[in-house]
Amino acid sequence: MSQPCEINMTGMRSADSMWSAADVWIKKPHVVNKRLCGVTETEYRDVDTAELIQVLFSLLGTNIKIADISMFLHADIVDKEHETAGRWCVGVRTIIPKVNKTVECLYKEVIIKDNVGHTVTFIPFEETGVEQVIVKSSNIYQIQLQLKPEEWMFSLHALMPEQWCSDGVAYPKLSWLCTKLLPKLSRWALESKTSEFKSTLSLIPVEKYGILYQQLKEKYKELVKVWPEVTDPEKFVFEDVAIASYLLVLWGEERAEKGTTTKQSFVDLGCGNGLLVHILNNEGHPGKGMDIRKRNIWDMYGPGTHLEETAITPSNDFLFPTTDWLIGNHSDELTPWIPVIAARYA
């Protein structure tokens, strides 16, 4: 086992803050690891130690080094007082990279929460198209909150640090976990703020978003090479690809819910370079973009992309009663007026 990375948690009020911080990393790893789209999770369930071992066997196979894992979890230490109450909480998350070079491989992790020892352990494994399970024993790690004399300490441990294998995406470097993730967890725990707002990605199936993002990124990546604007092409192209992917999945879910196949119409107010409009038009959605100034790249899109150079004022001349969606992605000072315009014919 590795020597732990540790952070002093002066000001920590209770262990509950640790669970709040850990849940951010479990449920929303993309807020730290920008190479991920997000995750999906199974239902978590409370188990005792005997049941935990059986769950691990059923998920990972009987050939896993259960003795080493049990020792790492401290599951070899029987806590009779807490066993009946369910010491462990176990579930599985599927990690969705923005770019998946091996489409037939699913990156997954068994998440084990130790409610007594204040630890969260991550056991990564891969599932291939033939339902083969490959356990990445070298990348098992654990986040722990310890109460040392008069102070809390956040620590991160790896089971086999000398064998750690990184791809920079689903498997970050161990040094990244220590120098980037652990300080983030510490800050979240000390702030201990719980948001009442849902993540926008929680509104759509994140698997569909991840797949579509990869498809559209491949489809429109050549624009980076011919970008005629002075702005950063990679930033603007892939940012609009991500926004378009989100809207297309969201609209697809909306059509399924309403039982219709008619694609939603839109108007993008303050459309800027017009790339979002170009992608949405190309993907079959009727709509247009409007901006006070034409951009050089507009001429490259062709007649299938509908863009208008015009000033926009929140007046009766700019109401869109037959349009399904108003978009204000690049609208800047126009942004606060978009819900006003929308409300006038809602």
TrEMBL record:
Q: Which Pfam families match?
A: AdoMet_MTase
Q: Which InterPro entries match?
A: tRNA_uracil_MeTrfase (IPR011671)
Q: Key word Transferase present in the record?
A: yes
Q: Which reaction does it catalyse?
A: uridine(44) in tRNA(Ser) + S-adenosyl-L-methionine = 2'-O-methyluridine(44) in tRNA(Ser) + S-adenosyl-L-homocysteine + H(+)
Any one of the GO BP annotations? tRNA methylation
Sorted alphabetically, which PANTHER family does this protein's record hold? TRNA (URACIL-O(2)-)-METHYLTRANSFERASE-RELATED
What is the protein name stated in its UniProt record? tRNA (uracil-O(2)-)-methyltransferase
Instruction: Specify the species.
Output: Cyprinus carpio carpio
